[in-house]
Amino acid sequence: MPPPADILKVAIEWPGAFPKLMEIDQVSAYGWQLPNHETYALQNADSTNFYITEKAQMAQQLYERVQSTSLDVKLDGLKELANSSRDVTFAQEFINLDGITLLTQMVESVMLYFTSSSLPRPSILRCLMDHGIVSWDTFSVAFIKKIASFVCKSSMDSAVLQRSLAILESMVLNSQDLYQKVAQEITIGQLMPHLQGTDQDIQTYTIAVINALFLKAPEEKRQVLTHIFLIMSSLEMSHILAQKQLRSIILQNVIRSTKPINEEMAHQLYMLQVLTFNLLEDRMMTKMDPQDQAQRDIIFELRRIAFDVECDSNNSGSIDKRKSMYTRDYKKLGFINHVNPAVDFTQIPPGMLALDNMLYFARHHQDSYIRIVLENSSREDKHECPFGRSSIELTKMLCEILKVGELPSENCHDFHPMFFTHDRSFVEFFCICIQLLNKTWKEMRATSEDFNKVMQVVREQITRALTAKPNSLDQFKSRLQNLSYTEILKIRQSERMNQEDFQSRPILELREKIQPEIMELIKQQRLNRLCEGTCFRKISSRRRQGRFWYCRLSPNHKVLHYGDLEESPQGEVPHDSLQDKLPVADIKAVVTGKDCPHMKEKGALKQNKEVLELAFSILYESDEYLNFIAPDKHEYCVWTDGLNALLGKEMTSEFTRSDLDTLLNMEMKLRLLDLENIQIPEAPPPIPKEPSNYDFVYDCN
């Protein structure tokens, strides 16, 4: 049962006591049993230090101070009001005093709090209104005209301009009626000069106002207002010039400015990008009417450009012959329906948008269009890349990637500079991607059965190229050149090895299980190399000698054969021609670097770091040793690894680590080749219970 309306539950605290939750009868509030109750106030539930009675008093004081005849008192009051208006409790108290009306009257008359550049930048009015206590519709037309006049002036104090733009944006977003009034007062052309300055805050608020007008505009007006990038329709020359100018201004003064783009500006550019691309939604969701002659003429135009044929009226021959010719050509163009390709464009999305893209590509990139069509029509049927089907599916894919038709996210900053570099960026984007699709098709040596696989690879190529945020369409094209099908496969393999599944317990256990096999393989390779032998140069402590000596391991891995040579051999030296032998069983240790006996001798060798890194020695019997200076680092690693393997010790060279990593990764990829897109469980599946009988077992005997 709810408490009586006169009972208020509040938390009260006073010095020397813990806070208490008390029920207060508002009718007999003066009967509270608190000592000196007039010195207490109710604390607000938020994290501020204000108290409800204190905020009410402050609101009353500021309401009076902003009406003072003294300019200094009024300015100080407005400064304090700007700071306090962020608090909802204070805002409620100030609005109850009819503070909104007071501020709007000041704006309409003197504009004192607007013109003082010493005040904090956020608008006092906007801070108060953003609490949602009163409706934006309460503002008068005179107030709107006053705010708009400051935006439309060629020179205005930056603080005033920013606050004016902020209020206009809030008005448009919060009221459809105010949108109509604001749209009558300002135009895109009047906002353009504010984008040409150097103040990024002003530029941000200007684009925010454009986005707000864009978002709230009726559909028919939005088509005209938002042809900033001239995506599809043809407009009057004056509109085209204005829109090109606006796009160019944003590109040169905002995107390519020397100042880094902050998060709020990036969000507004993302909003503009999304809202602009959403213009495509109407065509994307429009089915083609197979009976519409104007729409069918577009398909005839695609055929005419590709095959350089005349229109129907100039064709001679029977109707059946012409139909057969059209069917043949439509098949070469890659349509699914060869008899009536208009049916292909009844799928939504992408609807008529796909046909728009194809026609633009055929007209504005005619050489590339003809090359793709003729190149594929000359291939075998199973290897041809169907241009018509590819264009339809690609258009649908691009709409999905760019989220055409979806509302912009409030927290996203993902804008792409390259879409601001061309008046018809989306269709140019399509032209680049359709050529990429044809190139990838050839690289994959795809057939018609591989169509979906090719589209998946193309999607990955496009999304990876977009991730790099190219500054222009040319840079995007160059990025795609580096993302060939072969490169995509390499990236996929690399990412597979780094994804979480490859760090899971089953995968790590598999690596541990495979590793001994790989180490044994490396060991055998090292021993085989020792059996082949190596020619070493003899070096004394006094001078480099021109003599050589050769050492190799016997095929049974039990004896080292070595002996002097007059010159470097051209191939392997037979072990029976080497005079000296050292049984492997007699080897006590292998030492390297400065621990070698011949590196401890006085002389130049001790000072030669390169020689020191290639030195190793075999110790045998009591104090006998066989000294080596490897010809290079590779031979050094092969011999030290091989000798350690003979002694049953671990092979620790950097070459062994590299070989182990390479071979282990290759083996893992081969064993997991069939597990793509399959989630590997952390624990093995349970072993089923034993069957009740084994009667199903077949006795081969």
UniProtKB/TrEMBL annotation:
<dbReference type="InterPro" id="IPR001849">
    <property type="entry name" value="PH_domain"/>
</dbReference>
<dbReference type="InterPro" id="IPR024574">
    <property type="entry name" value="ELMO_ARM"/>
</dbReference>
<feature type="domain" description="ELMO">
    <location>
        <begin position="294"/>
        <end position="466"/>
    </location>
</feature>
<protein>
    <submittedName>
        <fullName>Engulfment and cell motility 1 (ced-12 homolog, C. elegans)</fullName>
    </submittedName>
</protein>
<dbReference type="Pfam" id="PF04727">
    <property type="entry name" value="ELMO_CED12"/>
</dbReference>
<dbReference type="GO" id="GO:0048870">
    <property type="term" value="P:cell motility"/>
</dbReference>
<dbReference type="GO" id="GO:0006909">
    <property type="term" value="P:phagocytosis"/>
</dbReference>
<keyword id="KW-0053">Apoptosis</keyword>
<dbReference type="GO" id="GO:0005886">
    <property type="term" value="C:plasma membrane"/>
</dbReference>
<keyword id="KW-0581">Phagocytosis</keyword>
<dbReference type="GO" id="GO:0032045">
    <property type="term" value="C:guanyl-nucleotide exchange factor complex"/>
</dbReference>
<dbReference type="Pfam" id="PF11841">
    <property type="entry name" value="ELMO_ARM"/>
</dbReference>
<dbReference type="GO" id="GO:0006915">
    <property type="term" value="P:apoptotic process"/>
</dbReference>
<dbReference type="GO" id="GO:0007015">
    <property type="term" value="P:actin filament organization"/>
</dbReference>
<keyword id="KW-0729">SH3-binding</keyword>
<dbReference type="InterPro" id="IPR011989">
    <property type="entry name" value="ARM-like"/>
</dbReference>
<dbReference type="InterPro" id="IPR016024">
    <property type="entry name" value="ARM-type_fold"/>
</dbReference>
<dbReference type="InterPro" id="IPR006816">
    <property type="entry name" value="ELMO_dom"/>
</dbReference>
<dbReference type="InterPro" id="IPR011993">
    <property type="entry name" value="PH-like_dom_sf"/>
</dbReference>
<dbReference type="GO" id="GO:0017124">
    <property type="term" value="F:SH3 domain binding"/>
</dbReference>
<dbReference type="InterPro" id="IPR050868">
    <property type="entry name" value="ELMO_domain-containing"/>
</dbReference>
<comment type="function">
    <text>Involved in cytoskeletal rearrangements required for phagocytosis of apoptotic cells and cell motility. Acts in association with DOCK1 and CRK. Was initially proposed to be required in complex with DOCK1 to activate Rac Rho small GTPases. May enhance the guanine nucleotide exchange factor (GEF) activity of DOCK1.</text>
</comment>
<dbReference type="Pfam" id="PF16457">
    <property type="entry name" value="PH_12"/>
</dbReference>
